[in-house]
TrEMBL record, chains A, B:
Belongs to the FAH family. This is Fumarylacetoacetase. The lineage of its organism: Eukaryota, Viridiplantae, Streptophyta, Embryophyta, Tracheophyta. Its cofactor is Mg(2+); Ca(2+). NCBIfam families: fum_ac_acetase. It comes from Nelumbo nucifera (Sacred lotus). The keyword Calcium applies.
Amino acid sequence: MALKSFIDVHPDSHFPIQNLPYGVFKPHHRGEARPGVAIGDFVLDLSAIANAGLFDGPILKNSDCFLQPSLNKFVGMGRPAWKEARATIQRLLSSDEPTLRDNDSLREKALFPMNKVEMLLPTVIGDYTDFFCSMHHAKNCGTIFLGPKNPIPLNWFHLPIAYHGRASSIVISGTDIIRPRGQGHPIGNSPPYFGPSQKLDFELEMAVVVGPGNQLGKPVDVNEAADHIFGLVLMNDWSARDIQAWEYVPLGPFLGKSFGTTISPWIVTLDALEPFACDAPKQEPHPLPYLAEKKSKNYDISLEVWIKPAGQEHSSIVTKSNFKHLYWTVTQQLAHHTINGCNLRPGDILGTGTISGPAPESLGCLLELTWNGQKALSLNGLTRKFLEDGDEVILTGYCKGNGYNVGFGTCSGKIVPTSL
Amino acid sequence: MALKSFIDVHPDSHFPIQNLPYGVFKPHHRGEARPGVAIGDFVLDLSAIANAGLFDGPILKNSDCFLQPSLNKFVGMGRPAWKEARATIQRLLSSDEPTLRDNDSLREKALFPMNKVEMLLPTVIGDYTDFFCSMHHAKNCGTIFLGPKNPIPLNWFHLPIAYHGRASSIVISGTDIIRPRGQGHPIGNSPPYFGPSQKLDFELEMAVVVGPGNQLGKPVDVNEAADHIFGLVLMNDWSARDIQAWEYVPLGPFLGKSFGTTISPWIVTLDALEPFACDAPKQEPHPLPYLAEKKSKNYDISLEVWIKPAGQEHSSIVTKSNFKHLYWTVTQQLAHHTINGCNLRPGDILGTGTISGPAPESLGCLLELTWNGQKALSLNGLTRKFLEDGDEVILTGYCKGNGYNVGFGTCSGKIVPTSL
């Protein structure tokens, strides 16, 4: 029989006892930031559980990792600590365990209705890297900008291409995104366009939250890379296509991206995702030895993008994609990142890049969906080529279990006009 | 008559009382990281001065900014705090002020010989950005890779191009640099090269240390940008040209750079550099209004690169350049960085990009000096196309005053073999 919590969890919930994702929250009107775990419509306060002495395993018993305003310390402790925490929390929340279930005063202290808390960034993010790992996305972008002949650069099939993004402007789901100003391509002999971006886009991504880091100069073996991955979040890598197109030669994206990147608040652990593991796509040419995995794994995570247009009450779905479409796995991404000796630190973020699938309805950004604005997207009677002020973009993702979901909740943001 | 310290300062020293650069140090064999100021061959311990109650101005009197293991808090306080600190320190160190000069016990506590301390990174670096602001460097790179026709991309003259670098692998001068491994261009139908980089290079740069940051969504006006700049350091943006050339299309430099970036430990403030301000180059086309400064300023800072080849006792000078060759000013760089709303934080690092001058002996990297390995550089009887294991690269920079220097000390690093 399936594991069940004493807390009522709706079958459609993303947060049953099989999930137990980690985040950082602040109760409304009182208190400090602290780590929590989502269970149904509640947040379990891990600082309260720790203060009650209920983390009684050998690793966590004397640790203050849940008495911190971020998850960096906990995620840096590695898989043995994660396994111990998961076992303890799963036991405390299960229907047949009285410790928390029958202790009114502890439940009062440790369980907060989700709508009574504010979610914060789960980690202090030292560095943020963004990869480019969906072949469909790479092919579509290449076709749009370079034409259909050789749209994917030769290096793409040999290494997971990436660039460093801006850590300071990563924000938590629900934060408004201010339309960036910047330069766009000049027309003829005029000076470049300057003003609010006219091609504001979303990008459907997921991102790894790094667990234990590696020392500078010590690469991580690809077959051990999973031990450096705490879990995954949803990520919207907002992009100003006009700014990006003008600035990106020769050093890559900069201001076209750095005005804001949204992540979802709940980190779903690899342990919770394990039942949904699936084979990664076959890689041809075969990767170099440092990228060749004994077992190359993806996860079957359904991904959706919804847009709620300015002034409307309802949102429309614009994309159905899946994490399993990624060509390069997250473990290959991490191994590649460190092969030159680059050091990762706990809490770092590694975005996958836009996750587009093969089908027209599985494209992960408006650039692809509207073919760079050449055709409009229909949204319940309205149309969009790029995002307008007031539009809200909502990403969601979930794995379908037998009678339950392991989900990521939502990752949302609304476009607000340029501030002057 | 020139200001003079009671501490003997050799006329060739980089650190007379006119300079007073800030760093973070740890005395050998004891104690915690703390802020200090360089004076001649000594380091003045600012935590000792603060603990003695000698920061008695209105802003610093009750601040713990010098009781921190980094300078982030102090640099974030802004110019009024910086001016007050400089006035206090300059007074305490001057030859006619008895407070410190005549107090043996305080001098004992507060002054450390420079060779008895370890220098650390001066700030916790939230994000690191690298610009591309020398026209000579841009032109030479373009000519090498694209040919002599239109070597500089059109956008270059309209905006200071930049990319985000890796903050985690920024190290302090004196740290060994481990030769990175990685992929290089395949030859014919072979798989890509994989192994230790065969084209390891230095890049002569300087970098801004950001003072007060800006809120997400609130650009900094170019005419107020200097108030967000605490000072400058030397920077060596080590580059693996073979890794970079293969990986950088289409998203820019990544592993070719992220294995290590060295900065000098002493931050020379804009106040100390002010006597050496000079006009920036005329910009044609005229920049867009958000980049147009009332007064466009550079600094006359002589820059040198020396290489001490593996196994040799002496180093040879390979480059003489100058900060004033930069086309885009540091204030324009900072204003551009924020025009899309991107937030900077105190302690962030903004590199200028390689600072090459117009003359053949003023080129800021081996890529240019050896024209991508086509000709060898002569080093006192030896030759180099790129860096070999055991080679040490030493950057230095200074402004020549009347009878004194305002200098940056050195920024050095030695290449050590790939670790396996």
